[in-house]
Structures are given as structure tokens and as C-alpha cells.
Design a protein that fits this description.
InterPro entries: Vesicle_transport_protein_Use1 (IPR019150). With 128 residues, the chain is an all-alpha fold. 69% of the residues lie in helices and 0% in strands. It has helices at residues 4-21, 30-47, 54-74, 79-87, 104-125. Helix 1 runs parallel beside helix 3 (54-74) and helix 1 packs parallel to helix 5 (104-125). The mean pLDDT is 83.
């Protein structure tokens, strides 16, 4: 049985993954705030009396680190740097919620990779 904190963490993580999968504008501030809240919740989960198993904590941390890395890669100036940073991101291995066939973080990783490749192609061909 998951604690209230873990349930809220999973809900926020799922929301962050769905925001990350959408095309974000420059004025999108929610994802950054949500990821920082996830980090705080992660610390609280580790200190919790009814904390999840070590494997689950590791998977949660991997997903939070992936989202953090995605935000950092978006802040880079050149498309080449973004593409390179995106290659080093490690998406989560398991689905966040039960009804997912493929982990959303893997889908986000593929979408971001395709977006970076498209931007590099546009930059190279001068079709911006």
C-alpha cells in the first residue's frame, strides 16, 4: 500500500511527463517548478517511515533526474549542444502509471531527440 506522499509523488511525476511530452513555449514555467517539487518530495519519501522499496526509489530518482536533465538541455544555446545533451539522458525503464504500454519518459526522450534533429536540419539547410 502506497503512502499518501508516494501517491502524490506519482501523480505529479505523471503530470510532469505529460507536460514534457508537449511542445513547450518559452513562457512555460510550470515544468521547472514541478520538477523542483518532485525533488523535495523525493527527499521526503526517502525519510518516510513507509518508504517504497529501494528499486522503486531508484526508478523514481532516475525519472526525476531525466526531467531535470531535459530542462537543463533546453536551456543550452545551440541545437548541437541540445542534441548532444539529449543523447546522454537516461529515461525511466518502467511505466509511471499502470495503463502505460511504454514508459512516457522513453517517448519524451524520442520526441526530444526528433525535435533536436529537426532543429539541426533546419539550421543546417537555412530553412528557419
Amino acid at each position: 500500500m502506497a503512502s499518501r506522499l508516494e501517491i502524490n509523488f506519482i501523480r505529479l511525476l505523471s503530470r510532469c511527463e505529460s507536460i514534457a511530452s508537449e511542445k513547450r513555449g518559452e513562457a512555460e514555467w510550470r515544468l521547472e517548478k514541478y520538477v523542483s517539487a518532485l525533488e523535495e518530495m523525493m527527499v521526503a519519501l526517502r525519510k518516510s517511515v513507509s518508504k517504497p522499496t529501494a528499486e522503486l526509489l531508484t526508478e523514481y530518482m532516475r525519472k526525476v533526474d531525466f526531467l531535470k536533465g531535459l530542462l537543463e538541455a533546453d536551456k543550452l544555446s545551440s541545437t548541437t549542444e541540445k542534441a548532444l545533451a539529449n543523447q546522454f539522458l537516461a529515461p525511466g525503464r518502467t511505466p509511471t502509471i499502470a495503463n502505460e504500454r511504454m514508459p512516457v519518459s522513453k517517448t519524451v526522450h524520442m520526441q526530444t531527440k526528433a525535435r533536436c534533429t529537426g532543429e539541426m536540419r533546419d539550421e543546417l539547410l537555412g530553412t528557419v
